[in-house]
């Protein structure tokens, strides 16, 4: 059996690779490739899978990891903030879909129990697909992302009462009220346990684990929490996915959630592929081809019905029109829990085989078109808002658009044009102090538990995580940083960080601290803009003190140091800097710098005079680019521009000339 499962895994993943490579050339979503791989390998096509049950188990693991990561990124506080969406929005969406579906189904002649059950099936959307796509697009925390998350959470909870109610629809008469009451008590107990674990257990356990500095133990602890809570919820009749979501919420309350996410993501990407493949295996190709026209019409009808209900629900929640459209373009599909529930209905004789096959076809097609509609939702929404309408309505919609735009700016701190400091040792601590004094926004990344605890005590903005991992760098918004400082003493980790960082940004300046001169060339080649070797800096400091003892004037010593540093220590080594990207070579101007100088002293040759009168360009051979004055920037510099005391000057020129000018303007 084990060898058969291994054979199936190799076949379906190998087939997926070929299909996704082709889809990538056609710019089609990978999800469609997995669905197609499942259809081809399924029993209704080439029947390549013999261990179907085991593949379904692997797909469940993928859903567990997906919901676990979503839970980590939300937190208990974030969940409490969307309780209105969960209960009111989810209740309206599910209840409205069931009601309208049941009415339409009864009208066309289906039995009442089948009509209500179809309402159950069509009321559920795909948690796996929607949350994965929203997460990849960074939209989980946007208004429409929160709406989708809240409604999907409600759907995952309500699927349990639906399963309990299904035997009643089939004509069986168990004591459904007592069963639901017992289930409610179990859910309450699970929530209490989750709260205790989140507030008191998880932070301490992860604190102990992190202090061991054992990466394997950390990953093992994360996985045990994930599967442990999922198992707990499954024992009381709730879904594994909901338990995994609760587990993510537990870990989100600790300081180590970002690193936990980074560790779990590779597992999620592998196992979630099995989910989409297993869905594709369900499609009966012969039935699909023979009833293609009817299926397409039903798909359109289901999509319009679900969009109508979602749209009305979001409007009742008092969200702007743009958010309404983005939400309804996310939740129109039929979900994976509907597939699970349909099997229960089929076993109880509520839906006949032909209706079951129609339902499967509708489910797979709506799942397949989801990536396209979510991707193009902003453009479609914009077009709808710009449609020709009366001027009075136009004015109202423009106001809605403005409020919608403001609404979508997530309340969480959005780092931009900031400093990313990797490592909180002695150098990192000093740099953070300087950044704080200079009012430069910054964020720190470190995996050392002692440094992390010290930073927390100092109220520093720190992320616990390994900066060689892309997930951690994303949390630090490295793609929007102006400067990145790598202040660690591990050459191997530094090289990995440089490679990963340059995949996110080619414009940020990366400054690297190295212990030895031999590491400079590698750092430059991999993307560092400046490398500060401790060996050379120690040599410079020692020689500076030697020159002082020989009574060499301080300004000459400073010029000497500037010459060494501005030439990338070329005076001390024959190695020359190689730009990390040929496209940026024009920015590496030899012996020229762009710096800022504060006008502190009222030098009468310069201060209070125009650019032309002061002769900055002619006498000091520097170019004034801009002036920062009274919280505003003067960028239109002309010969008549006056320099005032307190100005911050942005200058371009040779380091020696800038140093000379600084002596005249500083105290």
UniProtKB/TrEMBL annotation:
Keywords, ordered alphabetically: Ion transport, Membrane, Potassium, Potassium transport, Transmembrane, Transmembrane helix, Transport
Stored Gene3D superfamilies: 1.20.1530.20, NAD(P)-binding Rossmann-like Domain, Regulator of K+ conductance, C-terminal domain
One GO BP annotation of this record: proton transmembrane transport
GO cellular component: membrane
Pfam families found in the cross-reference section: Na_H_Exchanger (PF00999), TrkA_C (PF02080), TrkA_N (PF02254)
Location relative to the cell: Membrane
Family annotation (PROSITE patterns): RCK_C, RCK_N
Membrane spanning stretches: 6-23, 30-49, 61-79, 86-110, 116-135, 147-170, 176-197, 217-250, 270-289, 296-317, 323-344, 356-377
Location, primary (coarse class): membrane
PANTHER family from the UniProt entry: SODIUM/HYDROGEN EXCHANGER FAMILY/TRKA DOMAIN PROTEIN (PTHR42751), SODIUM_GLUTAMATE SYMPORTER (PTHR42751:SF3)
Family according to the record: Belongs to the monovalent cation:proton antiporter 2 (CPA2) transporter (TC 2.A.37) family.
Name of the protein: Potassium transporter KefB
